[in-house]
Design a protein that fits this description.
The protein is α/β, with parallel strands linked by helices. Helix content is 28%, strand content 22%.
């Protein structure tokens, strides 16, 4: 029987998980360097968790500075089976009010200053990102947030900007015209890297503001974001506890979306042309597929 091991990447305002038993911290290194902070291992009931604060404790890393490759690699090294990302975001649609949660299921990547793949340097892979989240984990995360008392919107498009500045009014209006629902700074390339690591990924986006498109609303600022972040973070921590309750006693089976074996259809470099040094580096990420 395969046990659930949930990797939780905590975003702005979520720097710890409440109620962890057998808690221990572990500082690790990966072939892509050190992750944002020490990994926090523990369990809630019989469900294991590995937590990492995306921006480091104290929020010392800008979105561009987050070591996304190292974070995902560290979770993979730790035996994580599924990754739940919790992120603060701005709303681009009237119905997504501050305090609401969104289980986004599509992403638009507008970042430009971040490494976006584990591959390259003599080993090429092209994973499908048509459906970038795990449908099962996303549904479970939404159920858990609702059970914790949050208002949850199922599905939606999350546009990821580079930051650290917030949008201009023109950009905010443009993203609305594109049909985007929420805006944040961290879901990309995080979700792409999780897919390359064959880790089912889902995001709980916690709405903190209306960005700057809403004429009768004050433009987004750190001050008004912080006003609602505390409430959202408490719900986020409660949702993790509810998720543990839902998974308790249930053996994990592979993702229904085929994510656990997605590299079987992604590796393109011929065996004889694969760079040995790169293969050694990729062992933690793609060892299963590379040995096949």
């Amino acid at each position: 029987m395969t046990q659930w091991v949930i990797g939780v990447i905590g975003g702005s305002g979520l720097y710890e998980i409440s109620g962890l038993e057998d808690r221990r911290e572990e500082r690790v290194e990966t072939p892509w360097g050190a992750p944002s902070d020490a990994l926090v291992h523990g369990r809630i009931g019989d469900v294991r968790f590995v937590f990492i604060p995306r921006h480091g404790r104290g929020h010392r890393l800008m979105p561009t500075e987050v070591p996304y490759q190292a974070n995902i690699a560290a979770l993979k090294q730790a035996g994580v089976t599924d990754v739940l990302a919790i992120s603060a975001c701005g709303s681009l649609q009237e119905q997504y009010a501050p305090g609401d949660f969104v289980t986004a299921d599509q992403f638009i990547d507008r970042t430009f200053a971040r490494p976006k793949t584990f591959f390259g340097e003599g080993m090429v892979a092209h994973v499908s990102m048509a459906r970038p989240v795990c449908s099962r984990l996303s549904a479970l995360a939404g159920d858990a947030a609702e059970a914790a008392g949050a208002k949850v919107h199922r599905g939606g498009t999350y546009i990821t900007m580079e930051g650290p500045q917030f949008s201009t009014l023109a950009e905010s209006r443009l993203y609305r015209q594109w049909g985007c629902d929420v805006i944040g700074m961290t879901a990309m390339p995080e979700s792409k890297l999780a897919r390359e690591a064959e880790l089912p990924y889902a995001v709980l986006a916690m709405v903190t503001d209306y960005d700057c498109w809403r004429e009768d609303e004050e433009a987004v600022s750190v001050t008004n974001v912080l006003e609602i972040m505390g409430h959202n973070s408490a719900l986020g921590r409660a949702a993790i506890v509810k998720l543990a309750e839902m998974l308790s006693g249930t053996p994990r089976t592979p993702s229904p979306d085929g994510i656990d074996t997605c590299l079987d259809h992604a590796l393109i470099t011929a065996q004889a042309a694969r760079a040995p040094e790169t293969l050694r580096k990729l062992e933690v990420i793609a060892g299963r597929a590379l040995k096949g």
